[in-house]
Structure formats: C-alpha cells, structure tokens
Amino acid sequence: TALIEAEITGRNRHEPVVSPVTWPPLQDRYDVMVVGAGFAGAVMAERLASDAGKRVLVVDRRSHIAGNAYDHYDAAGILVHRYGPHIFHTNSDDVFDYLSRFTDWRPYEHRVLADIDGTLVPMPINRTTLNTLYGLDLSSDAEVEAFLASRAEPIDPIRTSADVVISKVGRKLYETFFQGYTRKQWGMDPSELDKSVTARVPTRTCTDDRYFGDRHQAMPAQGFTRMFEAMLSHPNIDLLLGVDYADVRVAYPHDHLVFTGPIDEYFGYRYGRLPYRSLRFEHRTLNEERHQPVAVVNYPDEAVPYTRITEYKHLTGQIAPQTSVTYEYPSATGDPYYPIPRDENQALYKRYEALALAEPHVSFVGRLATYRYYNMDQVVGQALATYRRLKPMLRGAEIT
Ligand code: FAD
Ligand code: UDP
C-alpha cells in the first residue's frame, strides 16, 4: 500500500525524520553517540538501545537515515535508490534473521546483463554468455571448462584484479568484460588493484545467470528506508539529521562514541587522506513502462562514460506507466563511496587503525570507518560482532 499511496501523491515519504531546527533538548549526557545512520550506525544504535537499554543519540550529516542504502519515492512515484542500486544478499542466517525483525521481504534474485557492442549477454560470464558471444553450442560444464582452459593464461602467484580474471578466462574475455569497466569504475587498471575486487564476480560453466549465489536473496518489502525507520524508532534513540559530528560533539556529551564515517576524517587526516572512489548518479524518469530486460545492464566499453544503468522496477515489482533509471558515472571527487583495495592504501589504513585501537571509548564500525569494501550484510555482521564485544564492557549507565 505504501507504493500505491506514493504513486497517487507523488510525495516523498522519507524526507527528514528530524530536522536541525527540532534538535532534541540538551540532555545531561547520552550513554552513546552514534555518528552515521547507515547500516553500521543503525545496527549499533538499535542493539545499544533495545538490548543494553542505553540512551543513544544518532547523528548524520545527511538529511535522511539509511546511509547509502537510502531509498525514496521520486516525483514519478517510483521507489528509487539515491546512491545507486542496493540489492540484499547474504549467506548468514544470523544477519538475515536479525534484519527480519524490522522488515518483511520480497524475494528477488538479481540478474545482470552486459552490453557488448549492442548485444546483451549474462554477467557473470556463464555458458550462455560464451555461446551467444561466439556463436557456440557448448552444452555441458565440461565443454565450457575446456573452452575456458584453452584460453586461460596460467599466472602464479595471483596478486591483482587482472591476474584473477586472465588466469581463469584468458585475455580476450578479460578485456571485453573487465578491463574497460574496471578502468572506469576505479580510475586505474585492474593490474593496479587487489585481486579481491574482480574476485567478487565469479565465472560459471553452467547456465545459472544470477549475479549472486547466496542462500538469502531478497529486498525489504517496503524498501530500505522503512526498515531503518523500524530499527531506529525506539524510545531510547534520538535522531539528529543534517548535522555533522564536529558540530554536535561537545553539545551532546556521551560516554561512548560509535563512529561510522571515514576513519581518516575522524583523525583529522593526520597521516594524509585515505583514497576513496566516488560516483555521480544521474537519475532519470522515462516515459516508457520498461526500459531494459533486467534491473542492471553493465557497459564495460571504456568509450561509454557510465558503468551501468539500473531500472528500479525490477527490484520492487512496482507497476507504473513510467520507469525510473540511474546512470552511474565514476568520479575521483565527491562523497566517499568505495575504499580502494590496494596494498599501499591498506598500509595507510593500518596506521589509522593503530590510532583507533588506542581509543577505547570509540568503536569504529562500517565500510568507511574500517576501510573495507564490504557489502551491506557484511557491515551488519561486523556491527553485531562489535556490539557483542562491547556489551560486557557496558555497566549500568556507564560504558567503561
Ligand atoms: P554508510 O551507508 O556510508 O553510512 C555512513 C553514514 O555516516 C552516512 O550516512 C554519512 O552521511 C554519515 N557520516 C559520515 N561522516 C559523518 C560525520 N562526520 N558526521 C555526521 N555523519 C557522518 N551492498 C550490498 O550488499 N549490495 C549492493 O547491491 C550494494 N550496492 C552498492 C552500490 C553502490 C553504488 C555503493 C556505493 C555501495 C553499495 N553497497 C552494496 C555497499 C553498501 O552501500 C554498504 O555496505 C553499506 O551501505 C555501508 O554501511 P555503512 O553504515 O558502513 O556506511
Ligand atoms: N567488474 C567488471 N565488469 C563487470 C562487473 C564487475 O569489470 O561487468 C569488476 C569491477 O572492477 C567491479 C568489480 O568487478 O568494481 C566488482 O563488481 P561488483 O558488481 O561486485 O561491484 P559493486 O556492485 O560493488 O559496484
């Protein structure tokens, strides 16, 4: 019904929950201040408030909750993701069960096609991809394995994101599907990136064309922002949106801090800036019912300036006469979206981590604060584990 209401009113139901002009009155102290209302901050706040009975103040510099997972109804009444497509998937029963306390789910298995000179083929590379691209008739796993083995170049040791792919599928397929896309997405060649980046994408010998193989694959039935509202609407939690930590740090005293922003920012960039990759999102509403056959089409061609187009209706099952899509243009400047997995960056992060370990009254949690290329479920798992470690140290109203 939320979808239908929004279609009728065209209203954004998820604009600021609390604005700066309605700051809660100064308390003597909060037990915990949480910086960031994304997955890391929301899980920590929810656990501290409802499991440990702590009084928690959550602040976020953005005007909304849910961090990068924020979704809202656009002017056409379509539920869209402001910061690019977020698809939930996990192998962790714990993470799935925990989030299920705050949302129902819509089963959804993600499928992605890659545009290769105008032909749409499944990505990750699978049997269908090869048959379509090369006009082949490979009909068994063994045949596909033999085909790939004849192209693969042995590389030992496998260190970079180029090695991972070339050693599995050979140079031609690597260039077609990975090199251009990665150069655009990261602003550097796959040979300069840690192997973990392209290792996220498997190669399949079967015809399974799902992007993820996880046990749980689903979208929050009413969207991510609704799920976050359910997590954060607790009498022990106050929420301040549109304010920066630096502006409220002193005004709201607290015994413990949970910081989910960039770790280098917290320490005043003492050792220099950690590199993050950014994106510019171009959101468009089109006067057609459906734009593309699946939610995401990737454009690995380096000559195309964007990396992918997402059509949200596929994620939500929403029915409407128009459709909304997002183009992603990678960028060196802008909000920090992606930690860049490279040895030298990890070394710099380790120096900041050493500073963090010397701050017992601060928990650093999440993708930006631990400089890890984590999916949503990994951030939830990390936050739950951080809370479990913190809990024995919580005494009465004091956190020591
Ligand atoms: P964030 O969501 O970034 O939240 C941090 C919050 O802290 C932000 O809201 C920020 O405004 C706030 N903040 C930071 N510093 C301050 C400060 N000084 N004062 C006040 N507030 C501050 N994961 C998946 O599992 N599936 C996907 O399909 C998927 N797709 C993605 C697509 C894109 C384009 C991107 C960028 C990420 C994607 N992710 C996906 C990853 C997912 O977004 C993250 O794992 C998750 O959102 C991280 O949560 P977080 O709380 O660590 O960080
Ligand atoms: N990648 C690629 N071509 C594709 C899809 C992915 O080269 O069609 C590479 C690229 O470097 C990308 C990485 O694999 O950043 C991981 O892809 P994933 O879809 O997991 O990235 P995310 O959803 O986090 O942007």
Structure summary:
The chain has 400 residues and is an alpha/beta fold. 31% of the residues lie in helices and 21% in strands.
Report the β-strand fraction as a percent range. Answer: 15-25%
CATH topology of the largest domain, which one?
Rossmann fold
Q: What class do helices, strands and sheet pairing give?
A: alpha/beta
Say which CATH homologous superfamily of the largest domain is assigned. NAD(P)-binding Rossmann-like Domain
Global geometry: globular
List ligands, each type once.
flavin-adenine dinucleotide, uridine-5'-diphosphate
Write out the strand line-up for the largest beta sheet, numbering strands in chain order. 8-7-13-14-15-12-16
Oligomer, anyone? single chain
- Give the count of structural domains: 2
Q: Measure the end-to-end span.
A: 46 Å
Description:
GO terms for molecular function: flavin adenine dinucleotide binding; UDP-galactopyranose mutase activity. Belongs to the UDP-galactopyranose/dTDP-fucopyranose mutase family. Its cofactor is FAD. One of its GO terms (cellular component) is cytosol. Residues 177-373 form the UDP-galactopyranose mutase C-terminal domain. The protein is of the alpha/beta class and 400 residues long. The chain is built from 13 helices and 19 strands. The radius of gyration is 22 Å and the shape is globular. It has a 7-stranded mixed beta sheet. It has a 5-stranded parallel beta sheet with strand order 10-2-1-11-17, covered by helices on one side. It folds into 2 domains: 2-107 and 219-273 and 342-399, NAD(P)-binding Rossmann-like Domain (Rossmann fold), CATH 3.40.50; 112-200, no CATH class. Uridine-5'-diphosphate binds at residues 114, 123, 177-178, 181-182, 185, 197-198, 200-201, 298, 300.
